[in-house]
Design goal:
Blueprint: H1 3-13, E1 19-25, E2 31-36, H2 42-50, H3 57-66, E3 71-78, H4 89-104
Antiparallel strand pairs: 1-2, 1-3
Length: 114
């Protein structure tokens, strides 16, 4: 099997994980809480910030002001899927994100969420 084909197969076999992440501004302590049904999308999230195209204006402005190195990105919790029965990933991910929004309260002076 050639190398490219092998890499494609490995990529297909990689588990897709959903979860909640935080992006913390190390300069002022403000936090952004977000979630993705596929945490591989964090690369796209960071790319949007880097290219000044992210929709959260406050986060984008601070990212532009302080730069990439002023922020710490962390997955705070992975969504655990049930082994049996029906599992609504979208709904469960929303609940998980809400839990972290309640816990961290990233609003106003404390964060970037609206």
């Amino acid at each position: 099997m050639d190398y490219k084909k092998e890499l494609k197969e490995l990529y297909k076999e990689m588990k897709i994980e959903a979860g909640v992440f935080t992006m913390t501004n190390k300069q002022n302590g403000k936090v952004f809480v977000g979630s993705f049904n596929n945490l591989k999308r964090l690369n796209g999230f960071q790319f949007m910030l880097k290219t000044n195209t992210y929709t959260n204006k406050a986060l984008q402005a601070d990212y532009n002001t302080f730069g990439k190195d002023a922020f710490h990105l962390e997955v705070v919790e992975y969504l655990k899927e049930k082994e049996e029965g029906y599992f609504d990933t979208k709904k469960e991910l929303e609940k998980l994100e809400e839990k972290w929004l309640e816990k961290l309260q990233p609003y106003g002076e404390k964060g970037y969420n609206a």
